[in-house]
Amino acid sequence: MTHKKRVTLQDVANHAGVSRATASLIVRGSSKIAEKTKQKVLNSMHELGYVYDRVAANMRSQSSSTVGLIITDIANPFYAELLRGVHHSLEEAGYTVFLGTTFDSDMKQEQLISRMLEHRVGGIILCPVSESSGNSIERVKAIDIPLVLAVREIENVSCDYVGIDYAVGAQMAVNHLIHRGHRRIAFLGGTSHSTAWKERRSGYCSALKQAGLDIDETLIVESPVTREGGMGAIRKVLFQANPPTAVFCFNDLVAHGVMLGLNDAGLKPGQDLAVVGFDNNNEAPLYNPPLTTVSSYARLIGSQAAILLHQRIVNQERDTQRIILQPELVVRKSS
Amino acid sequence: MTHKKRVTLQDVANHAGVSRATASLIVRGSSKIAEKTKQKVLNSMHELGYVYDRVAANMRSQSSSTVGLIITDIANPFYAELLRGVHHSLEEAGYTVFLGTTFDSDMKQEQLISRMLEHRVGGIILCPVSESSGNSIERVKAIDIPLVLAVREIENVSCDYVGIDYAVGAQMAVNHLIHRGHRRIAFLGGTSHSTAWKERRSGYCSALKQAGLDIDETLIVESPVTREGGMGAIRKVLFQANPPTAVFCFNDLVAHGVMLGLNDAGLKPGQDLAVVGFDNNNEAPLYNPPLTTVSSYARLIGSQAAILLHQRIVNQERDTQRIILQPELVVRKSS
DNA sequence: CTGAAAGCGCTTACAG
DNA sequence: CTGAAAGCGCTTACAG
């Protein structure tokens, strides 16, 4: 592989017999250039194999055409969908996106933020880890470029945010179970430090209270937000003296784990025990049985976050926006 | 949001009372600096909130700390896993990764490549679209920075490659079905222009031939590589005069679609008709019934590609490498 | 449209 | 360790 020297705008200008300033205008799509000159220069670019150096341009003009997206785990279909939304909106607007995955590690999140800032991203969309340490909250606060939080908020950090109303979603799910006659309903999965969990819990509790049911703390079990987490959580709750007849899960992933755990125990989800998830992943209708769940519009959250970020980049002064999408219950066979 | 002026290395040097050259050495982790000076400078950096400008540094030193990863669709768990592998290896090595998704569009692929080159990526890992046009092949050939192809090769493009032996994998899958007594085995999904499809087909055919079975072209149906594609493909093959008793699918996603299609038709996958997939996604064991499939080591392909790219960046002169992983059959209840 | 100069924030190379 | 200069590939601003 031979290493060619990079072709510069000066080379192009020389080749086309124009000044560098003119070439620069053309590469940026200025309309003030005579069509004939423009074609001449474009031909030269093509001939020389010129590649515009956006990095140099951004540096000189103190701008940026990149954006950072930080999520917790791409293996979670929720985030895969969110990423789709972000990419769709952002690439259309001409940004190139850096992707970082934290695997819910606080430290990793800090590293990624630093890395992206060092790379002069124009803004960051951050889906925070579920438990932000004090350090990492300070880190986020110290970000002095456009920042949009998605999915989870961080306490005491005020900036643009897109998420859904988890409390309402949880309430819908639990109400549904109550209407089906269930009185012992567990809430499984997630970690109590995250706002996303607290909100779900609050919705879960309101629904129970409204129905005149007591809250039984033994029916609330935290777990990692994975299939494995769900399998573990259902086990803990299944073998107690007075087991639940229905389960509201932190998300579909956990719900899937719960179903697998039930199968292991010889129980049929949807028949022996009702299961409701949260997210409405692409896979939810395909589970066995198809999963009743709350749609959390991952794709929409992503594209809204992207739009918010773009607007913030364009205008730093505008008021902070909070977009809270309303969830929707999708009833299937698991409940 | 107030817009602070960026703190430069010069500012840090002034604050710490050293020269810019010294500060530069320290920020790059040189060991030739007295510990005391170093601490003084690091303190100043912290105090001023200095953010290293990697973009400027890379530009001056004609290097790069970014890498581009181009995949077809993040909603395919195979690519989600591959991405995990890439990120793991690459972030460890200090790169920040640009992600682009083509959705199997040739044009999008060209755009993404151009964008990434304009952003001075140090190298690209490309999972090519399934049907590369002449134009886009030329585009790929014209890439004059380190390039690693993954998952699919492109004809007449010679560069580092990581993939698995699809032919062998397909053969294993079909052999397995033959041993279970099946004689009419369909091959569903994928598009015939991709090498990944051709190789699978070749493995499918060899297995049939070895067993003395004829190849029936009506049992080979192409489709998009999605669940929907699988649902469509099984429909086409199910209602013919002499339907198959087993199906080998392009991948797990297609297989899942096939299962859903069977359910729709009132048939039970694994009982009325055997189904085998390809990839061994995280979800494969969780399908109903659990899916027999060929493991394609997505994660490993990703991390190997990352390693290859890193090596190529470090040493442009080394010989082209081709890493072909050997697949493995994972037998579950669907066959 | 041209031309010459300055600057974005770094690294490089070198004399001291 | 310092200091001064040059340069990475662009854009900006301005006089002509």
From TrEMBL, chains A, B:
Record keywords: DNA-binding, Transcription, Transcription regulation
One Pfam assignment: LacI
Domain HTH lacI-type, first and last residues per copy: 7-61
GO MF: DNA binding
PANTHER family assigned: HTH-TYPE TRANSCRIPTIONAL REGULATOR GALS (PTHR30146:SF109), LACI-RELATED TRANSCRIPTIONAL REPRESSOR (PTHR30146)
Name by which UniProt lists this protein: LacI family DNA-binding transcriptional regulator
Organism lineage: Bacteria, Bacillati, Bacillota, Bacilli, Bacillales
